[in-house]
Design brief:
17 helices, disordered C terminus, 393 residues, Growth Hormone, Chain: A, single chain, mainly alpha, membrane
Length: 393
């Protein structure tokens, strides 16, 4: 259980995998339901954007806090707290029509995401074999890749058969099942000396092994946030105008890459994998900006998923490998907040740019952020690594 065993697919790992599948599935389930519900309540697009965005906005600030808690309390408690919030929150959406109260509910809902996400990824880092950490992380987050393409389809199908209260009850039930799986997980006992360590949050935040991967990944996620927000507008006038094709191809390639090539970063070295992956993401954004039919859209999705699939576990593994064990939770909390930061900033900045320069040029320009991340990563990791090698020659 300590992470020294070379086996990845242990009982506790698989329990977390399926709990993760159900937990994040509830979030993707709400994608085709919640905006329509808010529109029916009479909210305008700005209000809908604020309410939906409050979910990620709150998680930006809460994930680092939850990371600090993960260093001092059992990870399973954080996961259970997250599932408890996810059980209650979908039902609360039906209790008010006030945009202000709905925004507060979304903020609370985001607290659940922050607690569970940090607890789960920190737990996996704790039990995964050190020499196969990137592969283990990649397999674990494949649970999210799988459910990304499944949950919205399920929700769209159920809308034809269930009334509103029943629709919102589904994610609550799924979260309850996730909580039951978490209860079955056996967490290794924390070593006593780790519990006594004091947190230096600023020191952790400014540690280049935390800050650099976080900034790099935020720039990468910014492109995904832009795609999620504006792809429907890009394809709206195409003969084939279903943006779901991109996400179906993206999910399939993510799963295949992480299962087939997931061990590549561990074998070649995480530092060697990141820059090529970020370059692929940048190329994918250029291809997406030039897409005009289903085939070119699918090609862009393949290239994007190929780069993204190995970039995340590699950056995550670098954080785990370079920080002390007593700061691992706080470090991963900061790193995972980069997901929410990118998802929040991507639609905002690309939306502002699109009003001036057009959508296609804006999507292509978003590819500059992973390229900037590649330069930053190469400067802080690869150049220093080469200097160390020269000194030892």
């Amino acid at each position: 259980m300590s992470g020294d065993n070379e086996k990845i697919l242990t009982r506790d790992f698989m329990l977390c995998f399926w709990a993760n599948f159900l937990f994040f599935g509830t979030n993707f389930y709400l994608i085709p339901i919640l905006p329509v519900y808010l529109k029916e309540l009479g909210n305008n697009n700005t209000s809908i954007g604020v309410i939906i965005g409050a979910f990620s906005f709150s998680a930006i600030f809460l994930r680092p806090l939850m990371g600090c808690l993960a260093d001092s309390i059992p990870k399973r408690r954080l996961m259970l707290a997250g599932t408890a919030i996810f059980i209650v929150s979908p039902l609360l959406y039906l209790t008010t029509t006030s945009a202000a109260w709905l925004t507060l509910i979304r903020i609370a809902h985001g607290m659940g995401l922050a607690a569970y996400a940090v607890g789960s990824i920190t737990f996996v880092a704790q039990i995964a074999p050190r020499k196969r950490l990137s592969q283990a992380t990649g397999i674990f987050v494949t649970s999210v890749s799988l459910v990304t393409g499944i949950a919205p389809i399920v929700a769209t199908h159920l809308k034809n058969f269930l009334d509103l209260p029943e629709l919102f009850m589904v994610p609550s039930i799924a979260s309850a099942v996730a909580a039951a799986l978490v209860l079955l997980v056996r967490e290794p006992a924390a070593r006593p000396h780790l519990r006594r360590e004091k947190h230096d949050f600023i020191g952790t935040l400014t540690d280049r092994h935390v800050l650099v991967p976080s900034l790099v990944f935020a720039g990468t996620i910014l492109t995904l946030g832009a795609i999620t927000a504006f792809l429907p507008l890009l394809v709206i006038n195409w003969e084939y105008n279903n943006p779901a094709l991109f996400f179906v191809v993206y999910s399939a390639v993510m799963v295949i890459m992480r299962l087939v090539a997931g061990s590549v970063p561990d074998r070649l070295g995480h530092e060697r994998v990141v820059v090529p992956c970020l370059c692929l993401v940048a190329v994918a954004m250029l291809l997406l900006a030039r897409s005009h039919n289903a085939l070119t859209l699918a090609i862009a999705a393949i290239v994007f998923a190929t780069g993204y699939s190995l970039a995340y576990p590699s950056l995550n593994a670098l954080v785990v490998e370079h920080v002390p064990a007593h700061r691992r939770g706080a470090s991963l909390g900061i790193f995972s907040a980069s997901v929410d930061l990118g998802n929040f900033l991507g639609p905002v900045f690309i939306g502002l740019l699109a009003d001036v320069a057009g959508l296609r040029l804006s999507l292509a320009a978003s590819g500059l952020t992973p390229l900037l991340g590649a330069w930053l990563f190469a400067h802080y990791y690869l150049s220093r690594q080469n200097k160390v090698q020269v000194k030892h020659m």
